[in-house]
Amino acid sequence: MVVVVTHYCCSSLYGQEMRHLEALRERLVAMEAGRARRERRLEHLLVQQQAILIPDSSDSDAQWRTLVDEKNREIDRFRAELDAILDVLRQLHSQGVVVPFRRGNVPPLNQSLR
Q1: Segment 6-23, tens digit of pLDDT
Q2: What is the pLDDT of residues 94-104, one digit of tens each?
Q3: I need a labelling partner for 36 at 20 to 30 A (CA). Which of 21, 84, 88, 101 fits?
């Protein structure tokens, strides 16, 4: 666009119009330079933000992995305990012991047995 304006300025024979077109050309050059500066600044800011966010995300990932590992260990302990209870019940059943179960007599899980 600047080339078109410059070409028109050089081919024009009018003094005042020539000065006006030259001023417009200078303004366009200044606007393009300003745009280039803003783009470089934004690019720099993006690089800085990425440098800040990447370590945070790896720390966050590590925290989540630790939490998931802890929960998996908890689940494994629960399964082992449940398997042990089921083994005892199977042994009792194989010995012919009948375990009484009355639905109305079972206390809620949050109350202790008396």
Answers
A1: 665 555 456 787 788 888
A2: 998 887 776 66
A3: 21
